[in-house]
Amino acid sequence: RNLLDRDTFSKSDPICVLYTQAIGNKEWREFGRTEVIDNTLNPDFVRKFIMDYFFEERENLRFDFYDVDSKSPNLSKHDFLGQMFCTLGEIVGSQGSRLEKSIVGIPGKKCGTVIVTAEELGCCRDSVLMQFCANKLDKKDFFGKSDPFLVFHRSNEDGSFTICHKTEVVKNTLNPVWQAFKISVRALCNGDYDRTIKVEVYDWDRDGSHDFIGEFTTSYRELSRGQSQFNVYEVINPKKKGKKKKYVNSGTVTLLSFLIETEVSFLDYIKGGTQINFTVAIDFTASNGNPSQPTSLHYMNPYQLNAYGMALKAVGEIIQDYDSDKMFPALGFGARLPPDGRVSHEFALNGNPQNPYCHGIDGVMEAYYRSLKSVQLYGPTNFAPVINHVARYAASVKDGSQYFVLLIITDGVISDMAQTKESIVNASKLPMSIIIVGVGPAEFDAMEELDGDVVRISSRGKFAERDIVQFVPFRDYIDRSGNHVLSMARLAKDVLAEIPEQFLSYMRVRGIKPSPAPPPYTPPIHVLQTQI
Predict the structure, then answer these.
(1) In the CATH scheme, what is the code of domain 126-262?
(2) pLDDT band at 475 (very low <50, low <70, confident <90, very high)
(3) Which of 397, 309, 410, 323 is nearest to 359 (CA)?
(4) 451 DSSP 8-state letter
(5) Residue of 357, 361, 371, 491 lying closest to 437 (CA atoms)
(6) Which of 255, 316, 320, 477 has CA atoms 20 to 30 A from the CA of 89?
(7) Are strands 327-333 and 357-359 parallel, antiparallel or unpaired?
(8) Where is the C2 domain (predicted)?
(9) Is the pLDDT reported for residue 247 higher than 60?
């Protein structure tokens, strides 16, 4: 909207060029170009860019605009109209996944705005639940009947076949009924309803040399008719058919049921307006070392971030794209507070218990450095109070409109293991996830136990309803000197990768469906005023 006019006799002929940034060396690479739209300062570009989206990665984008003056593909031959920078998460996390931002890049000029919308490709997120049985299959075993199983293959563009599902083996029968199984439509036919699906029937043998009974072909479209005379298939063995004149078939396979389930995705909820609320809790216990000493994990180095600062920045920058107001409660635990030196396990970093919110990750960093100067590191290391603090908020909105993520940054020495486990088991029923980033050289066995990936966490005989804790040791991501994160991107990725699944598991268990997305943007119609 309102692009600069660079043509003398007519309006600009704009094109938009999208660049993405390589994770390693940060260089910008051209991703694609839209078409050129002649003679307008308010183009609606038609060509779409299809790109992969990962919640846990920060994907930087740059949109450059040019006024095209000739047929040359070389951009330096055309007039630059400005550019816009954003992240893919920023677009997806905006209301209705629609972002409007100013175009910048030409000093002293207003370059207009760009509106970018994102939609998840409905590339068939359906799954199907199917069940099959067979009748009168050929007997292949000398002593008993056959032990049949089915193998499903989808066909590829080049005519080859790829295996996509095997049923279980049903022992000693020529009339097996297999268990129902669920498979994504993508895996079954790559979303192409008319593509051939080949099904082979085998007789299982212990030594792995399974005997081929026969095969048949079908397609998703045929199967989707459900149980009917159309979905009874003759199992044919081509070799037998060639040899025996009277050969009819090697049995039949019948589809018993066919149920389509549409999988909803993390983005469906974000688009429908679910907010992700991000809270930070920082470990201010004495085991971290005195902040004035270079050996301390809280060392106040004027020239570079300490371990806590690095971890906070890497994770926070990604999460903040999904939080509409960018206001983050930031808490500390395990310190003595001024003026009277009382020990607190949930104090506001900005010194305001009524309003612990900080603006953006930069605001959190500022409050963290400020409180380091005023509080005294102490102990013990209790996690339960900050977990319960966030749980109280999460318990008040269980309708799926909000989800809470608590980031605890700690040196991993924990004093209230039993209470923390109890808090986590209770929190597993709430719309929240906990990320623990362990900084420093300690043994993190206790943190691994809380993570619950290996053994589901329990307290007093009660198990957590779902896994809500993700633990990451920060030292795996920094260089030998401990001063540089080798890859901010990899750290953020490993920290955040489990959140979408944890989020979906909460919504599924509660039967919460995504709200419909707000209607797409339609440009206002300009009323032509006529003079009378």
Answers:
(1) 2.60.40.150
(2) confident
(3) 323
(4) H
(5) 491
(6) 477
(7) antiparallel
(8) 1-101, 110-233
(9) yes
Band (520; pLDDT cuts 50, 70, 90):
low
Contact criterion met (CB below 8 Å) for 477 and 487: yes
Round the average pLDDT of the chain to a whole number and report it.
Answer: 90
Which amino acid does the sequence have at 389? H
Strand, coil or helix: what is 340? Answer: coil
Contacts of 20 (CB under 8 A, 6+ apart): 28, 29, 31, 51, 59, 60, 61, 62
Token digits of residue 215 = 């095969």
Q: Which CATH architecture has domain 275-510?
A: 3-Layer(aba) Sandwich (3.40)
Report pLDDT for 329: 95
**CATH number, domain 14-117:** 2.60.40
Q: What is the identity of the amino acid at 5?
A: D
Instruction: Quote the distance between the C-alpha of residue 261 and its chain's center.
Output: 20
For the record, the structure tokens of 259 come out as: 């149920």
- Asked if the domains at 126-262 and 275-510 fall in one CATH topology, the answer is no
Higher pLDDT, residue 225 or 490:
225
DSSP 8-state class, residue 52: -
Write the CB contacts of 524 (distance below 8 Å, at least 6 apart in sequence).
none
Q: Which residues contact 412 (CB under 8 A, 6 or more apart)?
A: 438, 439, 440, 442, 443, 444, 446, 447
Count of Cβ atoms closer than 10 Å to residue 224 Cβ:
14
Tens-digit pLDDT profile for residues 1-44: 999 998 778 889 999 999 998 766 788 989 999 999 988 999 99
Measured torsion, CA atoms of residues 219, 224, 228, 230, in degrees rounded to the nearest 10 = -20
Dist. CA 351–CA 268, nearest whole Å: 37
The token pair at 370 is 């400020």
pLDDT band (50, 70, 90) for residue 120: confident
Give the torsion through C-alpha atoms of 3, 4, 6, 12, to 10 deg. 10
* pLDDT tops 70 at residue 355: yes
Segment 129-140 shows an average pLDDT of 94
Per-residue pLDDT of 94-106, as tens digits, reads 888 889 999 999 9
Query: What's the average model confidence in pLDDT over 485-510?
Result: 85
Give bridge partners of residue 184 from the DSSP assignment: 127
Helix, strand, coil distribution of the chain in percent, nearest 5: 25, 30, 45
Is the pLDDT at 183 greater than 80? The verdict is yes
Q: Measure the CA angle with vertex 446, ends 348 and 357; round to 5°.
A: 15
Contact 435, 408 (CB under 8 A): yes
Residue in 315, 325, 378 with CA at minimum distance from that of residue 347: 378
Q: Characterise 433 by phi-psi region: left (phi > 0), alpha (psi -120 to 50), beta (else).
A: beta
